[in-house]
């Protein structure tokens, strides 16, 4: 089984994330979205909401599973038997950041490969921080979010 992990904070999960994940589905037998949890860091949207939203978006995709993990991504890969880590690249800044993480992960666990997909041009400016700012100031961020989500809950805690 070719299992990939798609790790992130997904605070919130955007159409950019959705696109990367959907494009990767044909490449793997299973993709586990790993919501990274850090007890010392407060998120904007609760863990429960993020879990629920991602599950809602992929409810018809049998290959996609959503899990929460506190700790190293490579440890989670081992736990679930995944050999691939999926990441999206928007800009050269993403590339430099991702390059370092992927190379360090490879050093820690040589059997794991990080696979990068370039974002679609129209998703390049979409960034969770900007979406949180829009929501914080009462704006409408729905055009940046996957379709079919219950928007009444789309507010911070
Ligand atoms: P992190 O907290 O690790 O930055 P994110 O939740 O922001 O994680 O993103 C998870 C993954 O999705 C990363 O690989 C990131 O590059 C990618 N990503 C984020 N936004 C977009 C986007 N608009 N288009 C494509 N990929 C994206």
What does this structure look like?
35% of the residues lie in helices and 20% in strands. The protein is built from five helices and five strands. It has a five-stranded parallel β-sheet with strand order 3-2-1-4-5, with helices on both faces. Helix 4 (92-108) links the parallel strand 4 (84-89) and strand 5. The longest helix has 17 residues, at 92-108. It binds adenosine-5'-diphosphate (ADP). The site of adenosine-5'-diphosphate (ADP) has 15 residues, from helix 1 and strand 4. Adenosine-5'-diphosphate binds at residues 8-10, 14, 16-17, 20, 87-88, 90, 94, 119, 123, 126, 128.
Please sum up the structure shown:
Helices cover 35% and strands 20% of the residues. It is of the alpha/beta class and 157 residues long. It is globular.
Assess the beta-strand content as a share of residues: 15-25%
Shape: globular
Could you tell me the number of beta strands? 5
Order of helices and strands: EHEHEHEHEH
Question: Main sheet, how many strands, which sense, barrel?
Answer: 5 strands, parallel
Radius of gyration: 15 Å
Which bin fits the share of residues in helices? 25-40%
Helical stretch tally: 5
What small molecules does this complex bind?
Answer: adenosine-5'-diphosphate
* Rounded mean pLDDT score: 95
Distance between the termini: 38 Å
């Amino acid at each position: 089984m070719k299992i990939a992990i798609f790790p992130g904070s997904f605070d919130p999960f955007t159409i950019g994330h959705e696109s990367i994940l959907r494009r990767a589905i044909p490449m793997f037998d299973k993709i586990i979205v790993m919501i990274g949890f850090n007890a010392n860091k407060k998120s904007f949207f609760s863990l429960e909401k993020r879990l629920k939203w991602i599950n809602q978006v992929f409810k018809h995709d049998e290959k996609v599973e959503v899990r929460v993990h506190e700790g190293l991504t490579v440890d989670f890969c081992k736990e679930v038997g995944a050999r691939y880590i999926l990441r999206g690249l928007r800009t050269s800044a993403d590339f430099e950041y991702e390059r370092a993480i992927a190379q360090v992960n490879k050093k820690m666990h040589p059997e794991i490969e990080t696979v990068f997909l370039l974002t679609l041009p129209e998703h390049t400016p979409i960034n969770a921080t900007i979406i949180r700012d829009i929501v914080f100031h009462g704006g409408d961020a729905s055009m940046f979010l996957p379709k079919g989500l219950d928007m009444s809950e789309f507010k911070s805690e």
